Amino acid sequence: MELTYFRRGFGLKKDIEGDLRQDYASTIVDHLRAHDFQLQAGRLTFRLAREFGFCYGVDRAVEYAYETRRKFPDRPIKLVGEIIHNPHVNRRMEEMGITFLHHGAGAAFDFSSVGPDDVVILPAFGVTVGDFERLRALGCIVVDTTCGSVLNVWKRVESYARDGFTSVIHGKHWHEETRATASQALKYPEGRYLVVLDMAEARLVCDFIEQGGDPAALAARFEGRTSEGFDFSRHLERIGVANQTTMLAGESLAIAAEFRKSLEKRWGTAELPGRFRSFDTICSATQERQDAVLALLADPPDLMVVIGGYNSSNTTHLAKLCAHRGVRTVHIEDAACVDPAAGTLRYRHPGAAAEVVEAGWLEGVRSIGLTAGASTPNNKIGETIVRICEAAGVELAAPLAPREGGDSAPAAQSQAT
What we know:
Elements: E1 4-6, H1 13-24, H2 27-34, E2 38-41, E3 44-48, H3 56-71, E4 77-80, H4 87-95, E5 98-101, E6 119-122, H5 129-138, E7 141-144, H6 148-162, E8 166-170, H7 176-183, E9 193-196, H8 199-211, H9 215-221, E10 239-243, H10 249-267, E11 276-278, H11 284-296, E12 303-307, H12 313-324, E13 329-332, E14 338-339, E15 344-347, E16 356-359, E17 367-372, H13 378-392
Parallel strand pairs: 1-7, 3-17, 4-5, 4-6, 6-7, 8-9, 8-10, 10-11, 12-13, 12-17
Antiparallel strand pairs: 2-3, 14-15, 15-16
Helix pairs in contact: 1-3, 6-7, 8-10, 11-12
């Protein structure tokens, strides 16, 4: 069957602008933008990082999903995984009648329900080569929202494989983007990849390159993070470094530098051009949000609040970046984590896997820094400010009062959404 493929939308942006603003805009965030990213509410001063929230790639993915619903009002529409890592945006997709496709056994998605009359949306993270080929075989309509920054990394990894280089990918091996990126290496019979999570894992591999060791032990350590049949004794002689686009930029660059030094030490300077390649493939939006947080922290607030999905890579890295600068930092998924009635905050410490609930969290707080991951809509930032003000017993100015469909604060919830 022949695949019908769309990647540039349907020219319906003006038709959906009202829906997008109603679902995701914030008068409070608009006010912050217009007032040097600051807001005074009683004793509290809110300062918002100058780059935050939805990036271009996320905007585009969400817009294409809305356009797809408008373009195909009577067809079944299915989404491979989540459009982005934000529970509210994904819930809105479900409310629009879009069905989510989930993983089957192993890493592959379950496409058993997809037929040739269905419309299938690919998420901003992209999908693996294998999953795309399975959709092609089904002959359905595909709307591809894969971020352009992700596509740039794919091109690098594919070029590494074509030229006989193993791709070493700095990323989270379980993340949809990293799985899709790694699969690009397999377009060539001799393509290979290895995924490292952080500098500690990178050093394990670099030490092996420099000094040798037990390849079986290293293979066991990186089980599930390499291409099939990966041989540490043979497949680390020529390396191209890439990364998941939402990782900490500084760490990705440092990891690339470590591999460069190790290959130079092992093979000599003259051999290096034929054995090592690297390109900075952190997306500009990720870099801009990290830089904006660092600029905000030059004058440290009493408390830094990072808003976004707990499974959002770029959001978790923003939280870690703040905490590493010694600023008291909380990562909340949304405004419902703030409970004004109980006087508590439900949040995650940066890098932690479980939530904690803290009472008296606003004691002594006068200045609050705010940022949000690239998958967090503006209304979730506005709602958070509303609930913090309620918790502190201070009032927002009348023009910033919550409006219907905008910054109205959600009811408190006992569990993470």
